[in-house]
Structure formats: structure tokens, C-alpha cells
Amino acid sequence: MKYNFNEIEAKWQKYWAENQTFKANNDSDKPKYYVLDMFPYPSGAGLHVGHPLGYIASDIYARYKRHQGFNVLHPQGYDSFGLPAEQYAIQTGQHPAITTETNIATYRRQLDQIGFSFDWSREVRTSDPKYYKWTQWIFIQLFNSWYNNDTDKAASISSLVSVFETEGNAKVNAACDDAVKVFTSEDWKGYTSEQQQAILLQYRLTYLAETEVNWCPKLGTVLANDEIVNGVSERGGYPVVRKKMTQWSMRISAYAERLLQGLETIDWTDSLKESQRNWIGKSVGASVVFKVIETEVTPSLDVNDTHLEANRNSHDIEVFTTRPDTIFGVSFMTLAPEHDLVSKITTQAQKAEVDAYIQATAKRSERERMADVKTISGVFTGAYVEHPFTKAPIPIWIGDYVLASYGTGAVMAVPCGDQRDYDFAKYFNIEIPNIFDGADISEMAFTDKNNTKIANSDFINGMNYKKATQRVIYELEQLGQGKGKTNYRLRDAVFSRQRYWGEPFPVYYKNGMPQMIADEHLPIQLPEVEKYLPTETGEPPLGNAKTWAWDTIANAVVENIKIDMETVFPLELNTMPGWAGSSQYFNRYMDAQNDDAICSKEAMNYWEQVDLYIGGSEHATGHLLYARFWQKFMFDKGMVNHDEFAKKLINQGMILGTSAIVYRVAGTNQYVSKGLKENYEVEALRVDVNMVNASDEIDIEALKNWLPQFNDAEFILEDGKYFVGREVEKMSKRWFNVVNPDNICKEYGADALRLYEMFLGPLEQYKPWNTSGITGVHGFLKKLWKLYYDDNGLKVTDAQPTKDNLKTLHKTIKKVQEDIENFSFNTSVSTFMIAVNEFNTQKCTSRDVLQPLLVLISPYAPHISEELWHALGNEASISTAVFPVFEASYLVESSKEYPISFNGKMRFKMELPLDMTKDEIEKAVLANEKTQQQLQGREPKKVIVVPGKIVNIVG
RNA sequence: GCUGAAGUGGUGGAAUUGGUAGACACGUUGGACUUAAAAUCCAAUGGCCAUUAUGGCCGUGCGGGUUCAAGUCCCGCCUUCAGUACCA
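YS: structure for the whole thing
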């Protein structure tokens, strides 16, 4: 019988689907295990061989856990809202739902042919109204919540309202907008409903606010910080500018500290945790208030602009510093050009110069400002602040090295202790007082805070950094001009997108204030639009919808013409960002068909949280941070029972493409083989890798037919062959280096694909795909097959296994089990190859070892294992089989080949019984002829014997 | 700059955590089978030297160190990749 993999794989895939072999049960007595993949965005290009890498790894683990007796949840779905489908819709008019549906069908076919053990009965699609109903629902819960810093958790907004009604907001310690004003209970009761709603918006966990956003004109939408790479959009690489817009935001900053602390409790990779720590960017220091000296200040200050901070006036400048100990080294103050106070404090004399500077910096895009960090620029405002302790006047400057978006947008400049302040001071000839004992600051600032004592600093002279910091904070508190403060870089996340293909908000507007639609009317479904572009007035695409208004009597979406602002109101035109749908899908899988809740309490109590999550590290500061935020919120609200959603996370690396390059002689249609290209002036062109064989030789006829430009090309050959150059880069259509798993499955089989992807190298690593190597694992599968079948049929017998048979089997069990548990799937493949070779050499036919061998291999190569498993007479699927138990006794040997070393260098080997004592071993080795030969009559100085391992003779 | 990861044959990568470096596979070379190709099988394959079998020397990015023994541990460099960056 021949190994007909195509037939076998189709047969068992059908069997698994029909028998729902991998359906997970929500009420089982077995222990549970939840293995999750990052669900894919179904793009039009389909899967390439790089995509399934992580899925194969998680599938091996899931199948292994099933063999270990766990009830395994291994679901899959689609993150099906997103830009490409919408871009395609704009170009073709095709509804994104249709494209998405087609793409999903392709993905499903491709995934199925690889033989994954997914429980498809729990499939979710983020663009499915049945699913996004719950995304909308969570949005409403966030809207109806605020963050109480005293209890350190989210609480319902109604609890906040009752505090306002009884005592105002003076004692409320909330994560809220900085601009919140103090009011009493009487004030509160006197406010109109709109005023009250406006105040509550400043507390809600999702709120509407005018924010400076990253606007991408080309995409016509705002982008989150993590969607921008090097100043251009991650998708498409278009320029991004800053722009003020009214947007929904998520108050993720409220959770900054808990997101940081939570990292300690989860088993994620260090690099990923570090990325998140950097992104959260905690820094501890102090906030200091500097009072503007009033001489020239324009009198038209807004006296009503009171801040929660006591003692603060509108013409005070608050700064954040991590070095309060250097406060006596302050010689100027720098404000960001965008700082609110700039226009208020600038003197008449400096006004023209300041305005010119602000205009110049505003013109420069963020990108230019980032690229150009060396140029020092700034301008004096003419105003001064008073030093809190010395009362000396300190000049206020503006400089674009200060960022409006970090801290307070103002810094106290200490040129002797900070290099940027130093450079600025040198450039503008500002004084640089030295406050470090013995430090040399003639060339550069002294930034080493741990190796100096403070000098020239009044009450902190002679103190170290730590003591001085404490003292300065204490003194500032006494003055009411500062306090210890922790600052986070993490910004609130903008949650609005001016796109069509995303979750609509369950929000309508009444008197300009947002109103939530009640839970029972969800989902609010995406309306039909005539075109997917922004409207002529610049509104988002939903502005094109004719039926997009909320009738508060009928509780239904109705036609826009019915809007009367009495009972029918306009609906929100923005949609939610890509990360909305992916921030809670892992909980939905636990109970995917539930219409009454995201997940029932019972299901939640059973599955608890994801035990193993496998996905790419590119989501470190996006999805993985937002999902943790939502999970913590849901935990606060008692919807889930863990405040981290994934216990363990592994980042799979990427499989890269190996592009093929031909060299065209400049200005001709001649192509020169790689080895001869040095003799010509050439330009490199990428060609389809599928025309190139394993030795880098290209099929010239195929190339000629590939594109018209090659039809009458001439080739300069080496040894009658044309060799291409190679380049390792991301697999992408534009480099013609995409390898399609469909072709691999057809030619070598899914099992070969699975084994080979694992064999390529460690899971976490980036590695190039090279199709020629697959013959190795393909050959292994054929050998495996031949171990069970020869020309006469099945050759497995009931013969007693030999000692050697058992030794090979148990060696393999031990190694494979260790490998799977350590996620070193690459080395298991080698282990299987060695085992099969050994069984071949042993001429093993014994069912007692060949049957357990199949179970070991089945997580990796499920189809062939299932086929042979049934051929051996088993009725049920191999996935119900128990993983063989390792018995150490089979590996015990009575003797071993000892390496005998001289001065650490191995010289020869010697067979010695393992039960010998140290002394006996030493004696035996010294008595050996070869040892004597090596010693040449000398006495050894020392003999080191490590029983079972090595003998080393020092002489 | 900072943070994280990593440097082992022509290539992908192993090495039981300090104990025979290069498993396994690709590629290459030679051979068998075949009219031929494919497939399959066998042999060789880190470098250098020697050879009648046996052998010898050098080798895990570089330079030191610890140790009977270092790819592995310590110190100091170099390089590559990834993330992040005027963060006060």
C-alpha cells in the first residue's frame, strides 16, 4: 500500500467535521485547558505559508493536552472588520460584508485543509451583529462607569451622581479630566441636565472630548498612537498630522498602574512585558508649581478657570520633574509651543517673535520634528516665574523640544543636570549654575544622579539624590507649590474612526449630548450607504446613510428625514476602531452561542481564562494592552473572574520569504546569471520564486512566459544555467515570494506542511521559508508509513516488543513530552525521525510499540496517525487516545561508553558497567592499555570520575 | 541613546543546563537501480595536516578569566535583529 496523503487527509478531515471530534464541552468533569490563537483578519490574498505557523503550534499543544485527558477549548474566528475590505469597497462598490464573506470562505477552506482541531461551533466574527452586539454592550458599560482611585476600581456612574448630590465633587478621587472644576452639592442641583451630563462625561471611562488626534488625510480617519509607525500610518504608510476633533476616548490611563502591576502576575515573554512597561512609561517625581511674576502679564486672565489643585491660579505654571533634587539648578523654564499659557504670558515686546516661532513649529509636521532632533530652537516670552524657594526671577522660554503631550507640556530646565536643557542653555547663552558637588559641567550636563551630592542648594546641601528629593517635596508641600507625583506616558485611547466597516456606536445625540441606547435594543446594525467615502461636508461615511436616526418612542433605527429633535435623534456617525472587537473575543468563545450574555457565569467559572495564547509580538502595545484594559474593567464589574485574560503568552516568530532576483544589464533586455553579474552594470529585479529550484536555478521558459517583458529576453548563462540571487524579506505579493499552503498540501500533504513549519526552527524565531527542505519531512512520513505497511499490506504483528524496541519508544516519549511542554516543537521532529530509523533498523513490527508511537506523532501529523491508528483496528479517533506514559526503567542500561579525557580532552571511549563505584571505575580505566599508552609511564596527578558521565585524567 | 533577544559548518538548526560540539534535515559530491528522468537506497561531507590501519592540530563573534573540564559561568569589547525614543 502506498502513502496516499491527499486521500488520507481529505478522509479524516471529513471524519473530524462529521463527528465534531473537537467540539469542547462546557460541562465536563475533566480538567479544562484553553488554547487560543490570535484570530486572523481575512484578507483577500488568502493564507500564505507564514500565517499558520502559530496555529500549528497551538494545535499541537491542544491535541497534546487532549491526549493528557484535558477538556480542551481551542476555538477560532475572524477579526473581520477592517480597512482593506473598505478600501476595496470604495474602489469597486462591492459591500464589505460580501468581500468579507468570500474571504472567510477561502480562509476556512485553507485552514481546514491543514487539519486543525478547532471547535468551529464557537466561531466568532467581529463583523457579525450577533457578536458586535456585545462589543456595543461593553461600550455602554464603560460609558456608565467611572474610576474610583480610592477603591482602585471602576464603579457605576450612578454611585458618582449620588456623591455629587450629597457633597459635590471636592472629595471625589477619580481618574478624570484635568479640567474638572470643583462644585458643591448645591451647585450640582442647580446645573441643567446638559451641564450635569457634560460634567459626567469628564468622569466616564469612555467619554467624548475634543482631543488632539493623529489625522491621516489620505485614509480619512484618525489613528491611535500604535497605528503610527515612524510618523506615517502603519497601514499604507501615509503621512499623519495633528488635528483637534471631537472623538470618543477610552480612559485607559485610569488603569495605567494596574496594567503595569498585572504584568508581574502573568507568564508572558520578557520582551513583550518590557514593551508594555515602556508604553505605559511610569516615572516617579514631583509636580511643582511656579508662579508667574505679574509685572507685565496681561490683566485679562480667566479667573474662573479654577483647578482641583488647591493654591493654583491660571497664571501658575505646573511642571513635572523626575529630579526635584535639582530644583536649585533651575535657570529657565521651557513651555511647549502649544502650551495654553503661552499667549497669556508673552509680553508685548516679545509677541511678534513668539507668534512667528509658534507658526513655524506648527507648520512642521510631527514627523519633521522627530527627524530633526539636533536643531535647537526656541524663543524668550519676556515673562518670568518666581523660584519657589529663592524667589529669584526665572525667564520663561518656548522650545519645541518640550512636548505638549507629555507631562504638563512645561519643564523646569536644569541645564547642569539634563543634556537637552544644557544644550538649550548653551545655545541661547543662559546661565548654567552647578549644583553638583565636584561635578565637571564645562562640556556636558552631569546626569548621573546616584554618584553625587547636592551643593549650592540651600537646605539640601550635602544630601544625596534620594534624601534631597524627599526634602524638596516636603518643602514644596509646605508652600502649597507642589507634591510627589507619578506620571505615565500612557495616553487615553481614541476610540472613534471615520470609517464605514466597523462597529457602529449605540449612541444618539440629544441637545448635543450623547445618549446610550438601552441594552435590549442592541445590536444597532450598520446601515446601508450608497458610497463608502466621507460625505461632501466631511462627515464620516455613515453620514451617507439614509436610515440612520434613533426613534426613542419606537426604539428603532429610522429614516433620517424623521429627525425632529423631540423623539427622533441623529445617531453617531463614527465607528469603533479595529481593536474594539478583539478586546473581548476570548471571553465570547467560552459561550459563543449565548444570546443573553457575553458569557454565562457557569461557562466563565469553568473556563476561567486563557491558559495559553499564541500570537505575534506586533500586537504588544495594541491589542494586548487594550484587551488587558477591558478585562480589568470587566473584572471590576464582576463580569469575569480573572483580571488578566491570558495566563501564558508565546510570541511566534514570522516565516519570511526568500525572494529570487534576476539581474538585467542596464539599458538592455539581457539578463546575466548571478555569478557573472560583477562584470556588468546591472539592475536587480524580483521574480516569482515558484520558477526557481532548490539550487537557485531558474526555469528560463517559465520566466519568459511569466511577464511580457521577459518574452524575448536574452540570458547570459553560467554552465548553461541561469542562477538567481536571493534576499530574505517579508512574504508579500509585491516581492513575488509568496508560497501558498494549498500547493504545499497538494504536493506534500498537510502533515508534511505541519511538520516542516515546526522543523524550520524555534517557534519564537524569525526564519526564512525554503520549500526544498520539505522533502526531508516528506521522506520521513513515507518511512513512517512503510513501518506499518509494505507491498503485502499491514505488517504490524502481535510480537512481543524487544528491549531495544521499548528503549526507543520510551526515549521518544520522554523527549517528545519535554519538547511539547517547553514549546520546542522543532526538535521533536528530529526525535521522530530518529525513532522511525531505529525501529526500521530493529525491524520492529510489534503493535505494542508502534501503536503508542502514533499517539506521540499525532499532534504533529494528525492525518497519517489517524489513518494508521484505524488501520490497527481502533474504532474511535486517535485524539481520544491517552498519551503514553514514560517508564524510566526501559532506559536503564547496565553499561555505558565512557568518554575518557586527558586534561579535559576526550581521547577514547571505554565500555564500563554503570553499577561500578568511583574507585572501581578509576581502577579499570587506569588498568586500560590505552590509558597507559597516553600516560607514557607517568603517574596521573588526579583522576576525576563522574559516574555515568565521564572520566578525566589530569597529568 | 535606552530596553529586549541573539551570534555554532555551505544552509536551517541540535547539544540532557559545565562533561564526546555540529544531532536531525537541506544542499553538495560519489555510487547503486533505470534506456532516461523521477522516486528510492548506500557512502562521504567543519577546517588543516598526515596515513598502512591507527592518528595529530585548530575550531561555537573577539579578548581575557574561573574550572580537571566552558558553546554553556564571570569580566570587557564587537556585530546583527527587534521594540522605543527630545518622556523632563
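YS: worth flagging: Chain A is about 30% helix and 20% strand.
IM: good catch. Also The CA atoms of residues 564 and 669 of chain A lie 69 Å apart.
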